[in-house]
Amino acid sequence: MTRTIVDINILQTVPPSNLNRDDTGSPKSAVYGGTRRARVSSQAWKRPTRLLFNSVLDGSQLGVRTKRVVELLGERILTRSPEISAERAQELAGLAFTAAGIKLSAPRRSTPESPLPDESGYLLFLSSRQLDQVADMCIEADRADDPKAQLKGDGVKKALTEGNSIDLALFGRMVADSSDLNVDAACQVAHAISVHPVDNEFDYFTAVDDHKNADSEEDAGAGMIGTVEFNASTLYRYATVDVDALQRNLGDAKAAVRAVEAFVRAFTTSMPTGKQNTFANRTLPNAVVISIRNTQPVNLAGAFEEAITEQPRLRLASERLADEAQQIDAAYGTTPVSTWVVRTGAATEALDALGERVSLDDAVTRLGSAVAERLEGQS
Q1: Which burial class, exposed, middle or buried, applies to 318 when counting CB atoms under 10 A from its CB (0-12, 13-18, 19+)?
Q2: What percentage of the chain's residues is helix, strand, coil (to nearest 5)?
Q3: Is pLDDT of 154 > 70?
Q4: Which of 116, 321, 324, 337 is surrounded by the most beta carbons within 10 Å?
Q5: How many CB atoms lie within 10 A of CB 309?
Q6: CA geometry: angle at 272 spanning 277 and 227, to 5°?
């Protein structure tokens, strides 16, 4: 069976920044090829990617990931049936999730004097359509003699396995209490790593107390001092989308095409927000290589297993990425069926060997058309 895999390879230079902190506040790092590299976790890049969907997709095509599922569903019930009290709506919501096999418990901050709605023990991804369907079931159950039995009989669990949103279909869902509600993610995002060795640096700062500074009788000492750890890097980023899995999760080829287009655009232009107010490090990629493969995903991180220690770093990184792609494809027969290159500057011109140079808008449009044609051919 011919597969449809979309690979996205990115080179992106980021100035002094702290995109993704560890538990001590230091920029995350990893040892790769024997040298310490700057690292941004996949989770840190998935969230801004997902949030950018709000600007390119309708809210009805998206979902919500939260532990406050009872509160969320209760609000949806009230919106659709205002005559139900808020307390009753939350009670019905609790019955519905329990009927689906999802364990609920009171949040830590809930007290007998100020009770709060129960929560799931983990973040639960729910699509807007799934919430609407279960809310309707809860409203119907409210009219029944035994709402609990009614909800179980109406198959809340079945409703939660249908109508996945685009973000849910892409990033998946894991339900510890009820594995049959799991959704396997259709996309994978690698941890971004620098193509060169990195040593973190410290920014010592002082902050002036304006009121104190205006008092002539006060000393001129700073109101606050501290340090912020940072680094600067040229990152290699990689993500891949299994379009066939995406179509299965969504049950709709047209929705799968919209999802691929939205993911490529959002993953390319998003940026984790760690310390962004401090460093204003919002860059866009120097180069993006978007490929459709019919065999398997191919992560090209091997191009940077030997860290780049010379200049010009971006030019060398582009040459290595192009060479790695061509050598792997020649050796393993993984040559993409289509590739588009979005890039800026002369330093990245080596990547033109991989595909046609286009703008991001053109790349997304052509990718969407090609994916639609391939999915139509399978039907």
Answers
A1: buried
A2: 45, 25, 35
A3: no
A4: 321
A5: 10
A6: 45
pLDDT number for residue 379: 66
Strands (E), the chain: 5-17, 29-32, 35-40, 63-66, 104-105, 119-120, 124-127, 187-189, 192-194, 201-207, 224-242, 287-293, 338-343, 356-357
Q: How many CB atoms lie within 10 A of CB 312?
A: 11
Following DSSP, what letter does each residue of 60-85 receive, concatenated? Answer: GG-EEEES-HHHHHHHHHHHH-TTS-
pLDDT value at position 24? 94
pLDDT in tens, 253-270: 999 999 999 999 999 999
What is the distance between the alpha carbons of residues 76 and 278, in angstroms, rounded to a whole number?
38
pTM value is 0.94
Tokens of 354: 């991989």
Per-residue pLDDT reduced to its tens digit, 209-220: 888 888 888 777
Tokens of 316: 């060398």
